[in-house]
Specification:
α1 links the parallel β3 and β4. The chain is built from 2 helices and 6 strands, in the order βββαβαββ. By secondary structure, it is of the alpha/beta class.
Length: 151
């Protein structure tokens, strides 16, 4: 699994005219599921995201999103697995098929939402979405569950 994290002061996602999710301060998470990903990849990403100390507080060291009272907005993003090495059109062969992608996306959301005191909003899997955000910093990070073991 891959995740692009943007520290934001606000973010929202719309599907058509419907507001699907919105947050204030926190992480906007673009989540991509690969064909070889499993639940353990989602678990690893969740632990990493929640442990990152990237939120400043006055008079002290930076804290993680939960300690800062922040939220997460998770948006499915299979294009994180695009192969753009040749030709004019990206290849998507490393992305999970839609059934597996949605299953792991929902698993990721359920396990994030199970964390006490954490607000988690989401886009809609497989939908054409409009995402608005105000990047704070700017800070943008890339996490890849395959990097945990050097794969």
């Amino acid at each position: 699994m891959k995740a692009v994290l943007q520290r934001v002061t606000s973010a929202k996602v719309r599907v058509g005219s419907e507001l699907a999710g919105a947050i204030g301060r926190g992480w906007l998470v673009y989540l991509g599921v690969g064909q070889d990903d499993q639940g353990e990849d989602a678990d690893w990403l969740i632990r990493r995201i929640l442990s990152l100390r990237m939120f400043p507080v006055s008079g002290g060291p930076e804290v993680c999103v939960a300690e800062a009272g922040g939220s997460l907005l998770v948006v499915s993003q299979f294009t994180l697995f695009a192969n753009c090495r040749k030709g004019g059109k990206p290849s998507w062969h490393r992305a999970a098929n839609p059934e597996k992608g949605e299953t792991l996306y929902r698993y990721f959301l359920e396990n994030l939402r199970a964390r006490e005191g954490l607000t988690v909003a989401a886009g809609r899997f497989g939908a054409l979405m409009e995402v608005e955000s105000v990047n704070d910093g700017p800070i943008t990070l890339l996490l890849d569950s395959r990097a945990k073991s050097g794969k």
